[in-house]
Backbone:
């Protein structure tokens, strides 16, 4: 298979900044996604929006504000959907892969001057799209509830102003627990169906690539050696995440940072070394495949491709990118 994400790959790197909105539910790997994006000079992070996912809204907002404050960055942070569109919020306030707080493994200062916006995630996203001269890339690293709402509420605006949705979610071949299931897509299958069926350009960084791009354990030491606050925070949190992940899921030799993959692909699409466009469908009817990503990788459905599914990324460049961002922050 060859990388077919040509429209972006052909774009020259090193020119104008790329405007993005990050919709997330931190989460250790969301934290890396935020650090990577905020510290990278190619991206212009217009806003950070939150969705209930890894943890309930109060926790993911608190975690987002703590990350930004600790890295010395100010952005509008807006809370969005507190539960999936149709389904009950599947409580994940057990220990799981992200601990009780969602960011277990680091003590953030109790005092944080940053506050959550009075506006909702959807209001902020719509305004950023409306006022941006250029098209905006939406980076989604949590359940797709906010994006589903945005697309339903502002279909024209999205068609006009969304450059691409780069999302962490789904899986084509890689099976972690149930076949074709991945947390973000499964959590809000109805919203995922809206997003995948929207006709907007989508790049899917699912388990196929994220479990192929584990951070080397030695790399966590390199992060600490950067010697700044951000490096210390990221290194401490990833050490904890590695332990929690392996306890909750399965033993892997390396630390997964799923969400950061969806950011890296926007910073420099040529970091993707293997991807393919195909038709992807999200069944929502009750049954064993409800909330799965059914990827037509053999191109037998006859339906037009709607998603660029990523399979491999250059791990060395990914690690360098993360280090550069860490160095650029406080
Ligand atoms: C996704 O689920 C969450 O736990 C992570 O933050 C990531 O977005 C991986 O399936
Ligand atoms: Ca996430």
Residues:
């Amino acid at each position: 298979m060859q990388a077919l994400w040509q429209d972006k790959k052909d774009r020259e790197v090193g020119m104008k900044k790329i405007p993005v909105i990050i919709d997330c539910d931190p989460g250790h790997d969301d934290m890396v996604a935020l650090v990577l994006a905020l510290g990278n000079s190619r991206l212009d992070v217009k806003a950070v929006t939150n969705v209930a996912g890894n943890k309930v809204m109060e926790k993911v907002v608190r975690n987002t504000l703590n990350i930004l404050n600790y890295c010395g960055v100010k952005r509008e942070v807006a809370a969005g959907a507190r539960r999936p569109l149709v389904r009950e919020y599947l409580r994940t306030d057990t220990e799981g892969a992200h601990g009780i707080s969602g960011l277990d493994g680091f003590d953030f200062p109790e005092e944080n001057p940053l506050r959550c916006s009075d506006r909702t995630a959807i209001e902020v996203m719509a305004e950023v799209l409306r006022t941006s001269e250029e098209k905006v890339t939406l980076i989604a690293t949590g359940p797709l509830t906010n994006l589903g709402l945005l697309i339903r509420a502002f279909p024209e605006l999205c068609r006009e102003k969304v450059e691409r949705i780069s999302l962490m979610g789904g899986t084509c071949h890689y099976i972690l627990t149930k076949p074709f299931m991945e947390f973000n897509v499964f959590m809000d299958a109805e919203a995922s169906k809206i997003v995948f069926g929207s006709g907007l350009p989508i790049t899917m960084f699912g388990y196929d690539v994220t479990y192929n791009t584990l951070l080397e354990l030695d790399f966590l030491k390199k992060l600490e050696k950067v010697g700044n606050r951000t490096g210390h925070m990221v290194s401490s949190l990833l050490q904890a995440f590695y332990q929690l992940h392996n306890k909750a899921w399965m033993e892997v030799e390396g630390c997964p940072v799923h969400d950061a993959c969806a950011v890296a692909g926007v910073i420099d699409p040529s970091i993707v070394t293997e991807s393919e466009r195909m038709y992807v469908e999200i069944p929502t009817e009750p049954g064993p495949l409800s909330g799965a990503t059914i990827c037509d990788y053999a191109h037998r459905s006859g339906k037009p491709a709607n998603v660029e599914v990523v399979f491999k990324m250059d791990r060395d460049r990914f690690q360098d990118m993360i280090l550069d961002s860490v160095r650029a922050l406080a």
About this structure: The chain has one domain: 8-328.
